[in-house]
């Protein structure tokens, strides 16, 4: 490694007994595994990027405290955020590669009550502002457990001289619902408190480069006058405007997409078309850059074909550019009615054994069978882990449902992170995910049971942070470790995309393949992920410096910069 380069898993050193070990975020620390880590924390991050690491503290701890940390360097001090990892007790594995027992997932405030039977792990994160001066930033992190001070952990962050965009370059849309949030938090959905909480959930998604569909769910009120749809946008704009105009976060990040909220008061074909036309015009008038789309049907059956075609016609008759999204594999029955084809990830990669998709085709092949402007997205479903839960008796079937990129709690962290590199390598145009708070709308305790659709965490990436659970008086969203991994994968995508824009696409594609050859051939080795990121970073810096030298040369010689 060159001067200034150091990575969270670069050295495998045991911390002193009773001390602190720094462990890669790509290792899920479980009670039956004793990880070895570094004595110091070393991270690298681009401007506009967040990077995390894990501190494994002594076990049997009920209370963790940390002193505020300011990392000093050539620019303004960098600050850190820290959460304790809470554990989900998995009772039924998601499939044969899952396991029962405690798994880390919820990231709770350090002040929240702890279970001394679980490992004591703190997730520490540094987010680098867009205009941060590049260079080395250092500090020392001080922690105490149950009132006893631990040895300080030297902390270094290398800020790279390039930027990641605040808004994801890969369009995506993950579901969320005000009504599910209100139910889990014990609030009235129409209360100001619930609406403010929805905003916090939306902010948490956007902080992790994720855009949302659903949100408040309610469509704008509509009246029809002389064939026109007149919508009252007051409530919609108050809710969605900050996410679409870039004012909800200091970074200026925006949702990449927004769904058309259908309105039952638009009952005839003509009224529906007028309503869609008004929806599109409002976005144009506001100057919102998000891709507005119409979610026509989820996993339609043969009998749903007429419905999808009728919906598509009404949207098209609006005379605009709202694309129609359908979650389906390639199917000639939907030809001409789908603008965003969205198959499950299984449909992009051929695999021996029992087939989990009826029509496998990569993104390039799919585009040859679609209209010129059509897009190809993808999504995860229970077909990536099996929809029944636990290892099936048929080993061939278990293999067919194993190893896929996965958002399940009881799967390795690299599988949680892999969708970003896979999106780059595959060339898909976007990602859909059906929900992030699905379990909120059930009768179960989300903190103890996330088993849905045969998987632990399928459709749920948050935990309800109620005062009863966390203490204090405020309701808050509790993000999952898996959401951090999803964000890191989207940042991987940005690195690979940036390197390609600098003329090194061949290396970027090779790097992506080292991490994930296919949707089910994903490296489980944290050191390999760190090595690839390091090499990609070095090439970006080198390429960018060369580009800057060329521009400087042109300016010096009197050319146009």
From TrEMBL:
Annotated ranges, domain Glycoside hydrolase 123 catalytic: 274-499
Annotated Basic and acidic residues bias: 542-551
Region ranges (Disordered): 542-561
Name this polypeptide is given: DUF4091 domain-containing protein
Lineage of the species this protein comes from: Bacteria, Pseudomonadati, Myxococcota, Myxococcia, Myxococcales
């Amino acid at each position: 490694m060159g001067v200034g380069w150091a990575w969270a898993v670069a050295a495998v050193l045991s911390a002193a007994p009773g001390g602190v070990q720094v462990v890669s975020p790509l290792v899920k620390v479980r009670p039956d595994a004793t990880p070895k880590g570094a004595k110091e924390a070393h991270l690298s991050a681009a401007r506009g990027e967040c990077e995390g690491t894990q501190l494994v503290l002594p076990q049997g701890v009920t209370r963790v405290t940390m002193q505020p940390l300011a990392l000093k360097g050539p620019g303004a001090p960098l600050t850190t955020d820290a959460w304790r990892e809470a554990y989900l007790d998995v009772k039924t594995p998601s499939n044969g590669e899952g396991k029962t027992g405690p798994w880390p997932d919820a990231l709770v405030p350090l002040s929240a009550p702890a279970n001394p039977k679980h490992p004591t792990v703190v997730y520490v994160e540094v987010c680098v502002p867009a205009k941060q001066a590049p260079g080395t930033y250092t500090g020392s992190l001080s922690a105490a457990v149950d009132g006893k001070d631990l040895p300080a952990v030297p902390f270094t962050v290398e800020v790279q001289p390039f930027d990641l965009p605040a808004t994801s370059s890969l369009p995506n849309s993950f579901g969320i619902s005000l009504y599910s949030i209100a139910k889990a938090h014990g609030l009235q959905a129409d209360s100001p408190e619930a609406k403010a909480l929805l905003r916090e959930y939306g902010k948490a998604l956007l902080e992790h480069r994720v855009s949302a569909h659903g949100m408040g769910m309610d469509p704008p009120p509509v009246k029809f006058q002389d064939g026109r749809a007149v919508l009252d946008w007051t409530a919609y704009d108050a809710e969605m405007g900050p996410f679409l105009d870039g004012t909800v976060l200091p970074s200026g990040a925006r949702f990449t997409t927004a769904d058309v909220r259908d309105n039952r008061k638009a009952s005839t074909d003509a009224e529906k078309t007028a309503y869609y036309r008004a929806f599109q015009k409002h976005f144009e008038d506001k100057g919102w850059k998000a891709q507005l789309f119409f979610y026509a049907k989820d996993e339609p059956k043969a009998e749903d074909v007429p419905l999808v075609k009728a919906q598509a016609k009404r949207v098209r008759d609006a005379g605009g550019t709202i694309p129609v999204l359908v979650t389906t594999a390639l199917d000639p029955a939907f030809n001409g009615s789908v603008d965003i084809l969205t198959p499950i990830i299984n449909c992009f990669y051929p695999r021996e054994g029992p087939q989990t998709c009826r029509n496998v085709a990569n993104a390039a092949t799919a585009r040859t069978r679609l209209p010129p402007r059509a897009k190809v997205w993808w999504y995860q479903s229970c077909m990536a882990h099996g929809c029944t839960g636990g290892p099936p008796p048929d080993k061939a079937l278990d293999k067919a449902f194993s190893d896929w990129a996965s958002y399940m709690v009881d799967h390795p962290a690299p599988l949680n992170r892999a969708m970003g590199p896979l999106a780059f390598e595959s060339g898909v145009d976007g990602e859909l995910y059906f929900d992030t708070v699905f379990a909120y709308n059930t009768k179960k305790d989300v903190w103890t049971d996330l088993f849905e659709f045969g998987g632990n965490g399928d459709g749920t990436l948050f935990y309800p942070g109620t005062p009863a659970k966390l203490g204090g008086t405020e309701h808050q969203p509790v993000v999952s470790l898996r959401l951090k991994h999803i964000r890191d994968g989207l940042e991987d995508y940005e690195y690979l995309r940036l390197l390609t824009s600098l003329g090194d696409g061949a290396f970027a594609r090779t790097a992506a393949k080292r991490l994930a050859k296919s949707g089910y051939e994903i490296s489980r080795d944290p050191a390999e992920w760190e090595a690839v990121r390091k090499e990609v970073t070095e090439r970006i810096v080198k390429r960018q410096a060369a580009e800057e030298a060329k521009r400087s040369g042109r300016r010096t010689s009197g050319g146009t910069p």
